[in-house]
Amino acid sequence: MKIAVNTRFLLKNKLEGMGLFAHEVLRRMVRQHPEHEFIFFFDRPYDASFIYEKNIRPVVLFPPARHPFLFVWWFEGSVARALKKYRAEVFLSPDNFLALNTKVKTVLVTHDLAHVHFPGQLSFFHRKYYEIMAPRFNRRADHIVAVSEFTKADITAQYGISQKKISVACNGCPEGFRPVAGEEKKEIREQFAEGEPYFFYVGAVHPRKNVHRLIAAFDRFKTATQAPVKLLIAGRFAWKAGEVKKAFDGAAHQTDIRFLGYVSDADLKKLMAGALACTYVSLFEGFGIPLLQAMHSGVPIITSDVSSMPEVAGRAGILTDPLSVEKIAEAMQQIWQDAHLRKRLVEEGKRQQKKFTWDWAAAVVWESIEMVSI
User: Fold this and answer.
1) Which H or E run includes 293?
2) Residue 4, exposed/middle/buried by CB under 10 A (0-12, 13-18, 19+)?
3) How many CB atoms within 10 Å of residue 193?
4) What are phi and psi of 202, to 5 degrees?
5) Architecture of the domain defined by 182-355
6) Cα 100 → chain centroid
7) Alpha-carbon distance 112 to 344, whole Å?
8) What is the Cα–Cα distance from 102 to 83, expressed in whole angstroms?
9) Which residue from 63, 69, 165, 336 has the highest number of Cβ atoms inside 10 Å of its Cβ?
10) Which residues contact residue 342 at a Cβ distance below 8 angstroms, ignoring those fewer than 6 apart?
């Protein structure tokens, strides 16, 4: 079987979200199925590390697709022509988009429908593209893979698509996240937080991630407890980050809040393992990989009680209202003051993390490919 794959998010040292999913799932599938040919469609020069086995044929298709006008050109023009040229039998697109201008059987991975719930957080052209095209993509797909039960239900609710057409995979945890203790944890805290414990957030810094309320909650926590604790925020500043700046400028404990920017994989693993807790109080997530990173690192979690986060965190986290600064601050105070609670959450995390693996995700995607190829 010839399986064409949209691999435009396989970018060296830039594997975030959908790119990470594609990398982890594809490298497993191509190795497990050497009898099949995989045609990888890149939208720019690719790194050789993504050509996992000899049964991959890499193809670069013009233009680099990072704007709605170029999305149309790439998918409906370049990809559609390539599917015909290379006689693909199945097209796998793991990043929410697909080609409408083809009759090739298609498996679509839909990670979330955030654009439906937070349209104001997108630029005009991106918002219009999603509004017009996302319903068409999900209806056109021969089969859909959602990354959570929440996303599956959301697709059905928003687009009226039968749940029978949707399988549920998951995300997994990148390799290398592990617990640390004693001297190793002390060294991490010395390196990043002047030796003090810290709450840790990792992810893009923009309104949907709710970093402004996290900062306000931490400020309230510090005022209430005077605890020697810092807040470390790792991730690139994205669009509309003005609320975050405003929250920081208004914080009484600015010196205990640190923006680390984008951090390397090696530093991220240390930062997560050394944290007092992972604080991930996003307003909306299709999954939430940092929650798994925290579980694998032996770190308790504070997260939101909305969208997919309760499903992923399970009993390994304190679930709180992401719109309430007071509730987030109270959760921080619970973590700081209750060692038994921290220990219980870590133990729950050891059990919860076993539900979400890249092997399972790869198996679900492969089963979906086989389903449409019949």
Assistant:
1) helix 289-296
2) buried
3) 23
4) -135, 135
5) 3-Layer(aba) Sandwich (3.40)
6) 25
7) 30
8) 8
9) 336
10) 276, 277, 300, 335
Q: Would you list the domain boundaries of the chain? A: 2-172+357-373, 182-355
Q: For 65-120, how does the pLDDT look when each residue is reduced to its tens digit (9 = 90+)?
A: 989 999 999 999 999 999 999 999 999 999 999 999 999 999 999 999 999 999 98
CA 16-362-14 angle, 5° bins = 15
Residue 155 has pLDDT above 90, yes or no: yes
Reported as a single tens digit per residue, the pLDDT across 277-308 is 999 999 999 999 999 999 999 999 999 999 99
The DSSP symbol for 54 reads T
Rounded to whole angstroms, the Cα distance separating 183 from 348 reads: 25
Residues 220-227: contacts with CB under 8 Å, at least 24 apart: 220/325, 220/326, 220/329, 221/329, 221/332, 221/333, 221/336, 222/252, 222/253, 222/256, 223/252, 223/253, 224/329, 224/333, 225/333, 225/336, 225/337, 227/336
Strand 166-168 and strand 143-146: the pairing is parallel
CATH (one of 3.30.930.10, 3.40.50.2000, 3.30.450.40, 3.30.450.20) for 2-172+357-373: 3.40.50.2000
Q: Which uninterrupted H or E stretch holds 18? A: helix 18-32
Beta strand 37-42 pairing with 56-60: parallel
What's the pTM value of the predicted model, to 2 decimals?
0.94
